[in-house]
């Protein structure tokens, strides 16, 4: 359902971000406070690059959590592309541009009350 939680898909994100200049803004609300993170440069590579993330130019109030994942390839349960000894997608129950493992994980489980859920720069979003 495009009006609720919706994943656009890596191929579609690649097509959108390969057309030229693209930026990303992430708006969050946690415990009644609003935060945002904006990146002046944002792109996702194609399948051959394993959907490598490129992000830079942070401004905002949420913290620069996504920059930690810059240049990482997308990790899934069956494609371990992170820089950690174990599969971060398995450990954190989500596919993401995990590094070792993450400072942000917007694909995490919404209802989780611990570090394995949906997080941004140490903020845990309990369900």
Automatic annotation (TrEMBL):
Superkingdom: Eukaryota
InterPro entries linked: Fibrinogen-like_C (IPR036056), Fibrinogen_a/b/g_C_1 (IPR014716), Fibrinogen_a/b/g_C_dom (IPR002181), Fibrinogen_C-term_domain (IPR050373)
SUPFAM superfamilies named in the record: Fibrinogen C-terminal domain-like
Gene3D superfamilies in the record: Gamma Fibrinogen, chain A, domain 1, Gamma-fibrinogen Carboxyl Terminal Fragment, domain 2
Coiled coil: none
Occurrences of domain Fibrinogen C-terminal (ranges): 1-127
A Pfam family it matches: Fibrinogen_C
A GO-annotated cellular component: extracellular space
Name this protein carries in UniProt: Fibrinogen C-terminal domain-containing protein
């Amino acid at each position: 359902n495009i009006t609720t939680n919706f994943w656009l898909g890596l191929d579609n994100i690649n097509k959108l971000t390969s057309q030229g200049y693209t930026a990303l803004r992430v708006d969050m609300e946690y415990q009644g406070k609003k935060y945002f993170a904006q990146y002046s440069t944002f792109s996702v590579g194609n399948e051959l690059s394993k959907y490598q993330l490129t992000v830079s130019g942070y401004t905002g109030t949420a913290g620069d959590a996504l920059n930690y994942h810059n240049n990482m390839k997308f990790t899934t349960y069956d494609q371990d592309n992170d820089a950690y000894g174990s599969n971060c997608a398995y450990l954190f129950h989500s596919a993401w541009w995990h590094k070792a493992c993450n400072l942000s994980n917007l694909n995490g489980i919404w209802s989780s009350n611990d570090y394995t859920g949906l997080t941004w720069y140490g903020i845990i979003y309990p369900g």
